[in-house]
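Dear U.,

Please find below the material for section 3 of the report. The protein was modelled together with 2-acetamido-2-deoxy-beta-D-glucopyranose; I have listed the sequence and SMILES used, followed by the predicted complex structure.
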Amino acid sequence: MSFLLSILFFVGLICSSLSFKVLLYNTGSSKSHIQFGGALVNTLVDRGHVVDLLIMSWNPNVNSNGTYLARNIYRINLNEESPWTRMDHLVDSMRPQTVSFSHPIYEETRQEFCKTLLNQSDFIERLKIEQYDVGISSLYDHCGLGLFYLLGIRSTMGFFPTPMMDWTGWELGLPMAPSYISDLLCDQT
Ligand SMILES: *[C@@H]1O[C@H](CO)[C@@H](O)[C@H](O)[C@H]1NC(C)=O
Ligand SMILES: *[C@@H]1O[C@H](CO)[C@@H](O)[C@H](O)[C@H]1NC(C)=O
């Protein structure tokens, strides 16, 4: 019994001493996304990891970070107005609307923010020096995964603050859960 307890103790000790340096990339499309990403940061920091948070400020009215525990918080803003502010749900939430991944404003937002991020070579170099062990990215756009590639982060993960979107299932060859089919962000056609 005491032998078993000793093993458990040492396994616990090893697990608790494994501290990773994590970069979490979040798309700041709404407050709920920021809160979800912030909760992930809090959980990781509580488990002893060091986490830096990078927020793409798609919605400039969302100023919260979702966490106070990240070591560093970086924000990417555009020099001009974010295209995301022209989305129907922000302009007039009562207007009937269809949002899809191929929505022109959604595409423009993803492209503009990604171009702006990847154009900041000094910032990218600064991140590279950190030698993060793990990159965790919101999958509402794919810039985070591209960034992790540039930074040489080999362990990467993705998350959705919502059910997984169809496009991710298609791209990764994953089956879509049959229990939900009313994907708000995909074409209803
Ligand atoms: C978000 O984080 C930045 C950088 O740490 C900080 O300057 C800012 O005050 C934070 N915002 C809020 C609302 O806490
Ligand atoms: C990239 O940065 C340079 C200056 O650092 C600027 O002149 C150029 O307009 C930027 N390009 C984009 C796409 O933001």
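For the text of the report, you could mention the following: The chain has a mean pLDDT of 87.

Regards,
Y.
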